[in-house]
Design a protein that fits this description.
Layout (H helix, E strand, L loop, with lengths): L3 H21 L15 H26 L9 H23 L7 H18 L2
Length: 124
């Protein structure tokens, strides 16, 4: 059986995939002629629908992972995990799915500093 901590992390990864699509996926619609000229209100509505799917995973992840409901993480730990997962998922999408960005050394250094924050938040 999977632990609450691992289940929460898994759900956060799925949630962040939807979040990345909702927040940044619309910037890729120029590649699809049918969606190229959608008005802003349609883009907002489409992003909102995707964000609804994000919330369907985010809320259970936080609840399952919370110490108040039997999980291993306090609020600070849940937040810093979400941010670290968000960076990893975003980088994957930007470099490999959207193929619009190149991962440079300064991005890696910045991400390493952010990941160090995970270490310090979890340090007793």
């Amino acid at each position: 059986m999977i632990s609450n901590g691992l289940l929460a992390i898994f759900l956060l990864v799925i949630s962040n995939a939807f979040m990345t699509l909702a927040w940044y996926g619309h910037l890729q619609l120029h590649r699809i002629p049918r969606f190229q000229y959608l008005p802003l209100y349609a883009i907002v509505f489409l992003s909102w629908l995707i964000a609804l799917a994000e919330y369907a995973f985010q809320v259970p992840a936080n609840r399952i992972g919370s110490v108040h409901y039997g999980g291993p993480f306090n609020l600070f730990e849940l937040k810093i995990l979400q941010e670290a997962i968000s960076l990893i998922v975003f980088t994957f999408f930007a470099v490999y799915v959207f193929r619009t960005e190149t991962l440079r050394w300064n991005h890696v250094v910045g991400f390493c500093f952010l990941l160090l924050s995970v270490y310090f938040v979890f340090k007793e």
